[in-house]
């Protein structure tokens, strides 16, 4: 006797497409959510998480604000590049860059030349980013946010740099961090 029951199908199962990258690098201005989204993304993938700002502070034993005031921005940038180079040597890692990292040519070359590395630009208008940073509880001091006009100027200068160094672009303005995680994964699995 032939069964009238339909063959089971997999139509209602969404297969998880593999990622074509071994590293996801998040870039964007201060407050874009690189650290917050990066940590969530790494947890979701079961990957390591590397926060470049945190690793600079750990490796050199002082806060970024102290480095800026005692040694200047240029020395901070050298330290930042050293940490980025090391982070890019890892696999299955989500890397949250510091907001200014793509301004440095060395960092842009490192990103370009490291294979299987997906760079994602987390974007939002300056006013939203500024408010997020001001409202962030327990946030570390961001030296380059102390002067709002100068920060807005940097934001304008950097916008094309972020766009050029990232293949993927996510607009986060009206999203919660978890929605941004979903948007990033959708892009990278497309
Ligand atoms: N859609 C969103 N995506 C990410 N973060 C968001 C979002 N909405 C609000 N936030 C909040 O913005 C704040 C700043 O986020 P975060 O510290 O991750 O930024 P960042 O890009 O790492 O900044 P920085 O370059 O200074 O390290 C956090 O309090 C975070 O919860
Ligand atoms: O936008 C920037 O230049 C910075 C952003 C932060 O992530 C830190 O890397 C530091 O405060 C500088
Ligand atoms: Mg951060």
In short:
With 190 residues, this protein is of the alpha/beta class. It has one domain: Rossmann fold (3-Layer(aba) Sandwich).
Proportion of residues in β-strands: 5-15%
Report the structural category.
alpha/beta
The CATH class assignment is: Alpha Beta
Mean of the pLDDT scores? 93
Query: Which molecules other than protein and nucleic acid are bound?
Result: adenosine-5'-triphosphate, (3R,4S,5R)-3,4,5-trihydroxycyclohex-1-ENE-1-carboxylic acid, magnesium ion
- H/E topology pattern: EHEHHHEHEHHEH
Any overview of this molecule?
The chain has 8 helices and 5 strands. Helix 1 (34-45) packs across helix 8 (177-189), helix 3 (64-71) packs across helix 4 and helix 4 (73-88) runs parallel beside helix 5 (105-113). By secondary structure, the protein is α/β, with parallel strands linked by helices. The protein has a single domain (23-189), classed as Rossmann fold. Mean pLDDT is 93; it is low at 1-6 and 8-13. The structure holds adenosine-5'-triphosphate, (3R,4S,5R)-3,4,5-trihydroxycyclohex-1-ENE-1-carboxylic acid (SKM) and magnesium ion (MG). Residues 34-35, 53, 96 line the site of magnesium ion. Residues 30, 53, 64, 98-100, 142-144 line the site of (3R,4S,5R)-3,4,5-trihydroxycyclohex-1-ENE-1-carboxylic acid (SKM). Pathway: Metabolic intermediate biosynthesis; chorismate biosynthesis; chorismate from D-erythrose 4-phosphate and phosphoenolpyruvate: step 5/7. GO terms for molecular function: ATP binding; magnesium ion binding; shikimate kinase activity.
């Amino acid at each position: 006797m032939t069964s009238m029951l339909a063959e089971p199908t997999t139509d209602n199962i969404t297969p998880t497409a593999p990622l074509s990258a071994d590293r996801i690098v998040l870039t964007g201005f201060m407050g874009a959510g690189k650290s917050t989204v990066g940590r969530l993304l790494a947890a979701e993938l079961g990957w390591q998480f590397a926060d470049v700002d945190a690793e600079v502070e750990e490796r050199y034993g002082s806060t970024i604000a102290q480095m800026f005031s005692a040694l200047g921005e240029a020395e901070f940038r050298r330290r930042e590049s050293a940490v980025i180079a090391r982070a890019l040597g890892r696999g299955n890692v989500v890397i949250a860059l510091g907001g200014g990292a793509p301004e440095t040519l060395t960092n842009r070359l490192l990103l370009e030349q490291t294979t299987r590395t997906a760079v994602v630009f987390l974007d939002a208008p300056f006013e939203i980013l500024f408010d997020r940073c001001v409202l962030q509880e327990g946030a570390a001091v961001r030296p380059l946010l102390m002067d709002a006009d100068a920060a807005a100027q940097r934001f304008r200068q950097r916008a094309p740099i972020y766009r050029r160094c990232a293949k993927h672009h996510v607009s986060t303005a009206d999203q919660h961090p978890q929605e941004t995680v979903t948007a990033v994964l959708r892009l990278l699995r497309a």
